[in-house]
Amino acid sequence: MKINGVVTTGIYCRAGCGAKPKAENIRPMPNALAAMVAGYRPCLLCRPDRLPDFGLQQPADEIAQAVRLIAEGFLDHSTTDQLAQRIGYSTRHLVRLFEKHIGATPDFVARAQRAHLARRLLDDSHLTITQIAFSAGFSSLRQMNRVVRELFGFSPSQLRAKRSEKNTLDPLDGGLRLRIPYDGPSDSSSLIEFLRPRAIPGVEEVVDGKYLRTMNTCGHPGVVEVCDVSGENHLDVTMHLATFGSIVEQVDRVRSLFGLYLRPEIAIKKLRRDPIIGRLVREQAGLRSPGTWDRFETSVRIIIGQQVSVRGASTLTGRLVERYGEALPLNLPGSLRFLFPSAKALATADIRDLGMPQSRANTIKNFAAAIVAGDVDLTLVTSLEETIAMLETVPGVGPWTAHFIAGRVMGHQDAFPVGDLGLRRSAGQLLGRSVALLERELLKIAEDWRPYRAVAANYLWTIT
């Protein structure tokens, strides 16, 4: 989505805004963040502030992952220096890259994300302004007032007075409802169906086209419901919590799970011309690669899935949760009963009699212990090769598992578990063969899909 600054009014608009500013007064802007840095405030007619990720184009991989870390709240408890160290850059170089690719510093990105969530809650919810301040991750009402006025040109109370009551979401069963927007195509209904057989019993379930799962916010357990809204570029989310003290992290987790941080346009533009998978891409342009709600949880689910069926892996993971997860003393909907066990709990657990090979049980313990010791860091931003090498230091984690974790959990778009039988069968089917391709054959073909082999794999899995 193109963004324009209007010098005569001091606002920024979406290209094609109904206000129709004169061409001589328009200044093209790289994105909404750059417009805010330049002092423009969002138009109240076309509402460019509703754009997800502020209308950013896909930046360099390291910067995209840094933005994701900021969204997860990294700068709420750490400094820009520590963020730079996590990525392997100097602070000066990191800030320079942010200004080049995004048009704003990391600190400004963090403030803007909190302010935009606050704006969303002012529009959609019935929470008080004080409740919204803490829900959006601000340390005080005064801080939210200052940042919101700086970015939007109005106080929170003035913005709430301008909202359209017909667009306000009524709470369901006491829950907090809000819209989480996305840009570009997205087939979230298909992704929910993808999650259905992979749901961890007791933790996740899919009911009537809705994805539900347990969660923990500020020490308070609860449930989140997510459903796709046909014809609308947003997810409808309802959170059932004892307190809405801070939901920034939960909103980010929804966006991460549904692949909304990855802008698929560039990958689709490249892959749709491919002679092998191009037809799949053209037919399903809205397909997004699934992400993760919790990085450790999904990694363990992947490890358990080694050499077993999808349904079998879900059953085994459910047994693990029932034995070592945190039971919730709440009357939750459906079969939801547990929080997924922590790395610390599994690192010392005696994982036996769950129906899985002892070698795989040992791999789970080894992986959890490596997380606790800091030998494996699932938020570390490194090259794909370095990430694979780090993961394979864990006894029992081989290339298949490492590439799966690198792709789905850590966001490497070129990760490619070439040993996966489903991938090789699908590729063989597309080539008119009755047998699966050999690994070396598929690797050779996949060279044309770089640097988006993980995206290509997601399309291949749709025909298995």
In short:
It is built from 22 helices and eleven strands.
Secondary-structure blueprint of this entry?
Layout: E1 3-6, E2 11-14, E3 26-29, H1 32-37, E4 41-42, H2 61-71, H3 74-77, H4 80-87, H5 91-101, H6 106-124, H7 129-135, H8 141-152, H9 156-162, E5 176-181, H10 188-195, E6 204-207, E7 210-217, E8 220-228, E9 234-241, H11 248-257, H12 265-271, H13 278-283, H14 295-304, H15 310-324, E10 326-327, E11 338-339, H16 343-347, H17 358-373, H18 384-391, H19 399-409, H20 421-430, H21 439-446, H22 453-460
Parallel strand pairs: 2-4
Antiparallel strand pairs: 1-2, 1-3, 5-9, 6-7, 7-8, 8-9, 10-11
Helix pairs in contact: 6-8, 7-8, 14-15, 14-17, 14-19, 18-19
Fraction of residues in helix: 40-55%
Using only CA atoms, what is the Rg?
A: 23 Å
Named at the architecture level, the CATH assignment of the domain at 1-50 is 3-Layer(aba) Sandwich
How many helices? Answer: 22
Based on secondary structure, the structural category is: alpha+beta
CATH superfamily of the domain at 1-50: DNA Methylphosphotriester Repair Domain
Order of the strands making up the biggest sheet: 5-9-8-7-6
Strand content: 5-15%
Largest sheet: 5 strands, antiparallel
Broad CATH class of the domain at 1-50: Alpha Beta
CA(first)-CA(last) distance: 34 Å
Shape: globular
Please give the number of β-strands: 11
CATH-defined topology of the domain at 1-50 = DNA Methylphosphotriester Repair Domain
Average pLDDT number: 87
